[in-house]
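yo

u said u wanted the structure for the complex thing, so here. seqs first:
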Amino acid sequence: MEKTQEQSSPQTFTSRLNSNRSFRKFIRHKPALVGLAIIILLILIAIFAPVIAPFEYDAQDFSSIRLPPSADHLFGTDKYGRDVFSRVVYGSRIALMVASLVVVIELVLGVTLGMMAGYFGGKVDTLISGFTDMVWAFPPLILALGLISAIGAGLVNVVIAIAITSWAPFSRVTRAKVLSMKEREFVEAGIAIGETNSSILARYILPNIIAPNLVLATLTIPAAILTTSALSFLGFGAQPPSPDWGAILNEGREFLRDAWWISTFPGIAILLTTLAFNFLGDGLRDVFDPKQTVQ
Amino acid sequence: MTLLEIKNLHLQFQSDEGLALVLDGINFDIKKGETLGLVGESGCGKSVTGLSVLRLIPTPPGEITEGEIIFEGENLLEKSAKEMQNIRGGRIAMIFQDPMVSLNPVYTIGDQIAEAIDLHQPKGITSTWDGVVEALDSVQIADPESRAHNYPHQFSGGMRQRGMIAMMLSCRPSLLIADEPTTALDVTVQAQVLQVIADLQKELGMAVILITHNLGVVAESCDRVAVMYAGTIAEIADVEKLFENPKHPYTRGLLGAIPRADRDMNDLAIIEGSVPNHVNPPKGCRFHPRCKEAMDICRIEKPTDVDLGEDHIVACHLYG
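structre next:
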């Protein structure tokens, strides 16, 4: 018994990804592969940032202010003589950390609420769905701005604000999926062998609704990165000298005409990262949901 | 000895068109070790009868308004949700129509059987894993030890249904409700699955309620048959008596509609009309608009159960 449980608990979607057809489909999805490659590269860069970056991200050098890109300073330097390349490299840590934290919080919030709404139905459903729609109706950036003005600037607060304002899609997707899942016969069979509600939710429904949420999560990461950058750009997020991409972009804004490199390179980093996650998300969606494939 | 007795069971569903009386006072019982066939057209209430016994009717919109379900001397309708969880799978098990979708796709067959065993901890099983292997072996899955590690998609349809039976019977229930267990399977596999159920029934001494619309299956494997029509039981009798000497006009119509190799296909009897709407059922006997032998009283008064002796019960004014 122990042996089997070890072998078979955590492979819900991996087992499906490993199954030949899905895997081949994913391999054939070129943009998804490119996206995955960029993301892996980005993760490596974030992990090995101290090795890759030639300078500290906050090391100022007033003898080399606003130098254009060169062999010493690949992306040039900013108004304090800091190496933009090193700052962008360290910035990947912030981007990935914030994005994954946001997505985890959104997943937990959205999936829990969605499962309750879908499974219990009735008044619980009306209440949760109404609340979800209400949150969804707000433009996330505006609501996040409002929240941050209330709780104060800073990266942690940015994470909280973004998560609180944009979990609604997870709740919706989960609820819809649970509604169709709970009518399936294996769930009924589970009830017929005497399973409790919590066990039905955890063992029968949750593992079967991971795939769409995973796709949604991948597509939510770029949105989270963009919003973080936007908030940092506006000065609500990462505080100097923190090398958040949005913050660097903002610092270079006033010199855009004579020192284009300060804003351009973090901008490219944001673009590539969001694009990569979007590609990967599209690919995953095609693998998990053949009906939506456009080919 | 009576294992399960259903007395005057009324079940209604709240629907958009109004209140649908889906079960209108049904009575039957089943003895230990016996096989009772529950037959009838689609929508006559066979499946909801089975689901009512396990209290699996979604409430709302469904509601049992009247009646008793006595199982081993206790009224199941008075049980708490917790007590029902112990009864489900432990003392009463149910298998469903479509084996393709009645197993959880994300766990191995062995895991799912183990789950059922761990939930109820039946006597006489030394370890969960032995119970799993034994259960799979009892439904004639070859090489149960390694097959237990397979996922449902690695099983064929017939194997999945047998896996389902293994899971449901691993806890040795005293009653099995089989809701069209063979409908989704092809004929040779059907025979195999029915044989597995019959063997296990003998071995465990359990009673079976076999819900089906296949009269061939009934003739083959049941001791007694209850014929249902539009939420009522038209006739109950021993299987031979019912096939040889059907009393209710509906039963006669059903049996007349079975094609037989030794007769001309064009002589098949037809029951005119279709199953009535549950929201506005016909007054009196629910079958009277389609009955060739309907009398005046059939349009006014609901027939009561008439005992013709030797456990042959029919609800028809012809015999009142």
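The first strand of chain B starts at residue 2 and ends at 15. Chain B touches chain A at residues 54, 56, 84-90, 93-98, 101-108, 110-111, 114-116, 119-120, 127-129, 132, 148-149, 151, 164, 167-168, 171 (CB under 8 Å).
cya
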